[in-house]
Amino acid sequence: MNLERTAIRELFLLSAPPAGESCVKGWVRTVRRSKEVMFVELNDGSCFASLQLVLDPGRFDGSQLDGISTGACLSAVGPLVASPAAGQTWELSVESIELLGGADATYPLQKKRHSFEYLRSIAHLRPRSNTFGAVFRMRSALSFAVHSFFHERGFVYVQTPIVTASDCEGAGEIFRVTTLDPATPPKSDGKVDFSRDFFGQQTGLTVSGQLEGELFATAFSDIYTFGPTFRAENSNTSRHASEFWMIEPEMAFTDLAGDCRLAEDFLRYLTGYALEHCADDLAFFNQRIEKGLIDKLDALANATFETMSYTEAVSRLEKSGRDFEFPVSWGSDLQSEHERYLTEELVGGPLFVVDYPRDIKAFYMRQNDDGRTVAAMDLLVPRVGEIIGGSQREERLDRLDARMAELGMDPDPLWWYRDIRRWGSCPHAGFGLGFERFLMYVTGMENIRDVIPFPRTPGHAEF
User: Domain ends where: 50, 68, 101?
Assistant: First the structure.
């Protein structure tokens, strides 16, 4: 009988077994054999739980069952029946079975606990493990939630370039994109002649879609970008990757306060979505990865978000009596230890720190009237510190040009960015949320390499 596959998740949602037979397909997690009965734990990735298959060895040829081992891919057909075993509602009484793809004893994911470091070395197989199945289902669900949030609010989704000639942050940590022969590049006046490169100029992989997003905000009012970004930073910490995904909304006719309101609404929405739609996977994370995770997310979803100026934050840190590893002083950037003290011990919840010194922030941030600070904000949360960063953008061309000149920036490559300040300029603001950073927060995973399918870090670009 040729039946279409039914996802295991759908079977577990049933209040009563369906009439007739069901067809399930998936990968074997474990096998238990005896002369009288054979139990196979099958998982198809549709949910955390696996379905138990029950086979009577007397009904099948030995050759049909010999290839069933951990890692093998099976198709099984039979009636779904109530299970007498604890911890599961249904099991499949197998009447026919087909081995779609075998797996020998060298299959790396045997039934034992593997370290995350080892699983990174077999990233092509780790989605079949419990932990990474849960991580990537969560990633998928929250990707959908990102689009849902902005769609419900009338934002336009904009796909910004991956290859760009501008460096948004001005740090120079970009991957160069070129077709020139690195051994013998063409030169002019002793310098590489990029006019003979593929794009006719020096280009690299984007570090942010913000600048292009600003252009679209001046036409559509409210837009967002959600795509890959790249940073050629030689950092091997657990929080840095060379390729990561950024969510960057941009809003016209909005100031810093409005920017903070959207960031608060966005973080509440994503957290609430995870709690409502990813309960089984969250329960696993709560039990195996981070004790108290669900309580942490509940607290964030229902918290009061407070606001404090950078100047006040520095003053409170200086008066804290704490011996921080990094000294605190006005004009220096806040470190993770400072941010966690502010959010965990001082206010006991999420906190917006606003109005940072202009000398430690990017050129595009709107300068405040005091001449010392810019309209920037960081959203800090307990256990992590900064999770969202944003600002009101400088919409005044003369102030933008003066700031670029002060920083020694060549305005010519950003002629298009300056143009939107010449014609129909308006107040606008936006922020960025690193998707992997948020996934770390919502799953409890401690390494960014474990919340992205194929991590790209210094020295590693496998798969």
Answer: 101
SS3 130: helix
Residue by residue, pLDDT tens for the chain (463 residues) are 568 999 999 999 888 888 889 999 999 999 999 889 999 999 999 999 999 999 999 999 888 898 999 999 999 999 999 988 877 889 999 999 999 999 999 999 988 889 999 999 999 999 999 999 999 999 999 999 999 999 999 999 999 999 998 876 655 689 999 999 999 999 999 999 999 999 999 999 999 999 999 999 999 999 999 999 999 999 888 888 999 999 999 999 999 999 999 999 999 999 999 999 999 999 999 999 999 999 999 999 999 999 999 999 999 999 999 999 999 999 999 999 999 999 999 999 999 999 999 999 999 999 999 999 999 999 999 988 999 999 999 999 999 999 999 999 999 989 999 999 999 999 999 999 999 999 999 999 999 999 999 999 999 999 9
Burial degree of 32 (CB within 10 A; 0-12, 13-18, 19+): exposed
Residue 119 falls inside a structural domain: no
User: Is residue 439 classed as helix, strand or coil in its secondary structure?
Assistant: helix
For residue 305, the surrounding DSSP H or E stretch is: none
215 and 330 in a single domain? The answer is yes
**From CA 165, how far away is CA 202, in angstroms rounded?**
6
> Which residue segment(s) compose the domain that 19 sits in?
8-101
Buried b vs exposed e over 334-343: b needs ≥16 C-beta within 10 Å? beeebbbbbb
Sort strands 22-33 and 385-392 into parallel, antiparallel or unpaired.
Answer: unpaired
- Cα gap 92→79, rounded to integer Å: 6
The Cβ-side half-sphere exposure at 436, using a 13 Å CA radius, reads 23
Question: Which of 269, 24, 20 lies closest to 142 in space, CA to CA?
Answer: 269
29 and 153 in a common domain? no
